[in-house]
Amino acid sequence: MENSQSQTPSPALNRIAVIEGDITRQRVDAIVNAANSSLLGGGGVDGAIHRAAGPQLLEECRQLKGCRTGEAKITQGYKLPAKWVIHTVGPVWQGGFRNEDELLAQCYRNSLALAELHGIQTIAFPAISTGAFMFPIQRATAIAVTEVKQFLEKNTSLEKVIFVCFSSELLNCYLQAVREIIGANSGE
Ligand code: AR6
Questions:
Q1: Which of 11, 34, 41, 108 could hold 128 in an S-S bridge, CB 3.0 to 4.6 Å?
Q2: How far is the CA of 116 from the centre of ligand 1 (A)?
């Protein structure tokens, strides 16, 4: 029987990559930081980014006067290979009844909008909220892939969005989400 589904490839296809690695090593225009609302550093990916960027990052972050959950702010990357850091604050998982899904989606939307505004062509995301903030991984990766896909369908300036996974479990979740939501396998 003929496949009745549309054969038109999504414009997101080929512009999304999923890799296992350390986001601080990525040679991209911007990396995204899963920060907290103080923007003054912390553990996890936030701590790694501040360590790799050096103390000037904290100095610039101090000027920003914090960031609300779901919003995003941009700084330079200093000693990082990335020129920019986009800091966003994911929601703390509280069982799913505190608007966590929408707030996480906003992190991706607002980070991508800032990237577009700054002419960024390549951007790497960590799995926002899935560490200290305890957002369930499968649910978080589905939201991440959905938001990036929707953004890429309208945007033409972003060339590559990379999901950087800090574990093979996360890598498998992203690959599955990409298969289910975009309909193709993406990876390197
Ligand atoms: N590269 C890529 N991903 C990483 C790296 C790295 N170097 N290090 C950790 N991850 P988390 P959150 C992954 O806890 O849940 C901080 O203290 C990690 O495996 O960094 O949003 C902030 O200051 C996980 O999948 O961020 C906040 O207080 C993902 O990054 C709070 O944690 C996110 O884990 C934010 O919590």
A1: 34
A2: 24
